[in-house]
Structure formats: structure tokens, C-alpha cells
Design goal:
Layout: H1 3-7, H2 14-33, H3 38-45, H4 53-79, H5 83-104, H6 113-128, H7 143-163, H8 168-179, H9 184-206, H10 214-272
């Protein structure tokens, strides 16, 4: 059977499809634990010959929205996150993602990436040298101020998701641990609900444009759901210490990915011009 013809991608081979499905499973697992699964799933989709970048982005969001829905439900049942914080934060993040997408049409994402790399490096060092951070919940704000800070974090990170995207779930965990004072487990639980909203918002933009490859996205969604379920169960069972370790690994990977982008987009052209 010609899998490429079946999925509407004539140059897609069985070997490439298997690789993408494995990447989708791993992405679901990483996303469920601490976010950042897009670092695996999106580049894998871009390996398909002839796929347009917007098709890869849209199909990635289709698979991811099912994965984040699965992990959100699993965390809700077992970790009981406070929806009074998570749901308003999700709504504001959704609005922020639309704003970020609008800015992306005017300003290049490359202009923001150096700042993000520096911020991630600071977060990685801060987390590595503060082993007690995120071990227990010690909220830094209460009452209205708590919700204002959560909303502000959701707005900024939602904006980032619309503008650039990679590592949105990781940034949500950073904000909920370092800014709000939640432990890593509760932060991951709330981050999934907020990330579900930003994924759904992006998908609502892609669907009317006909960018989603539905059959391929459905296959990847199944793999993403399986990885998300396993990852969220493992994170809940092993707790904040396990999530903190995975968090540091993903942040380092994000620094590497965005650092390479900064080099190719900002630094390498300077040397090429000489």
C-alpha cells in the first residue's frame, strides 16, 4: 500500500511515518511531564518531503490538542489542580496567543529569540542551584493579586506561543513554579490546561485556512495521546523531584534549539557577508 498517496503526501514513506509516530509518542510524554514536546514532533513533521511549514504547524497542533486534553484530564483526576486559577489563566492565554500571532505577521520571531535564550539560561541556572524550588507549594500571592499574576503570566506566555511557540508548556511551568510558588506537580497539572487552550486557539486559526492534514494528524494524535497518558501517570506517581529533572533536561534542549536558531538567523549572516 502506498502510504504517501493515502495520506495525501506522495513522497511520504513508511520509514518516515514510523519515525514521526515515534516522535509524536515521545512528544506526548515530554509534554505531559513538563512541556516542550513540540521540540520533537514539529521537526519530525518537517522531515516529510514536500510538506509546507504551515501544514506541519497545523498538523502538529491537531495532534497536540488531543495529547494535552488527555494529560489535562489525567492530571485533573489525580492531582486535583485548582481550576479557579487554571481556567481564567487559560482564557487569557488564549487571547494572548492571538495577539502573538498578529505581531508575528509584522515583526520576525528572530528578533525575540536572543532574549528568550538568555531568559532560559537564567531559569536553568536558577533551578539547578535552587534544589528546593518547586519541591512544595508555597504561594507567593493571595486573593486578587494571585489571579492577576496568574493572568499576566498566561497573557505573556500565550503571546509567546502565538509568536514563536516551542516550549510553551515549559514556560508555563517556569511561571507557575518560580513566579506563583506552586510545586512542580501542581504546576504541570495547571500548565496542561492552559496549554490546551493555546493549542486549541491556534488550531481554530489553522482549520479555516485548510492547513490541517487530517488523516496524518489523526494518526499522530493517537500516538500523542498514548505518550501523554503514560507521561502524566508517571509524573503523578513520581512527583515533583522527577518533574524537576525532566524540566531541566527540556530547558537545556530548548536553549540548544533556540541558540542554533539565533546563530543561523542573526550571527551566521554577519560572517557570510564578509
Amino acid at each position: 500500500m502506498d502510504i504517501g498517496a493515502l495520506l495525501g503526501l506522495e513522497q511520504l514513506t513508511w520509514a518516515t511515518l514510523v519515525l514521526i509516530v515515534v516522535a509524536a509518542f515521545a512528544a506526548g510524554w515530554v509534554d505531559a511531564v513538563v512541556g516542550g514536546g513540540g521540540l520533537l514532533q514539529l521537526p519530525a513533521l518537517l522531515l516529510i518531503p514536500g510538506i509546507a511549514p504551515v501544514q506541519a504547524l497545523a498538523t502538529n497542533k491537531l495532534a497536540s490538542v488531543f495529547g494535552t486534553a488527555t494529560s489535562s484530564l489525567t492530571y485533573y483526576r489525580r492531582a486535583k489542580p485548582d481550576l479557579r486559577t487554571a481556567l481564567p489563566m487559560a482564557g487569557i492565554a488564549l487571547a494572548g496567543s492571538f495577539g502573538g500571532a498578529a505581531v508575528a505577521t509584522v515583526l520576525p520571531a528572530a528578533a525575540f529569540k536572543p532574549i528568550i535564550v538568555v531568559a532560559l539560561l537564567a531559569v536553568a541556572l536558577f533551578t539547578a542551584f535552587r534544589p528546593q524550588m518547586g519541591a512544595t507549594t508555597r504561594l507567593r500571592f493571595d486573593g486578587r493579586r494571585h489571579h492577576v499574576m496568574a493572568g499576566a503570566a498566561g497573557l505573556v506566555i500565550g503571546f509567546y506561543d502565538g509568536l514563536i511557540g516551542p516550549g510553551t508548556g515549559t514556560f508555563l511551568v517556569i511561571a507557575l513554579v518560580a513566579l506563583m510558588g506552586y510545586d512542580f506537580l501542581q504546576s504541570s497539572a495547571k500548565a496542561k490546561i492552559v496549554n490546551l487552550a493555546t493549542n486549541a486557539g491556534a488550531l481554530l486559526l489553522f482549520i479555516p485556512h485548510g492547513s490541517v492534514l487530517w488523516l496524518l494528524g489523526g494518526i499522530l494524535a493517537v500516538a500523542n495521546v498514548a505518550g501523554s497518558y503514560l507521561g502524566s501517570r508517571m509524573a503523578i506517581a513520581r512527583g515533583s523531584t522527577f518533574i524537576r529533572v525532566v524540566f531541566l533536561v527540556v530547558v537545556i534542549a530548548l536553549i540548544g534549539k533556540l541558540g542554533v536558531d539565533v546563530w543561523h538567523e542573526n550571527v551566521a549572516p554577519l560572517f557570510a557577508g564578509r
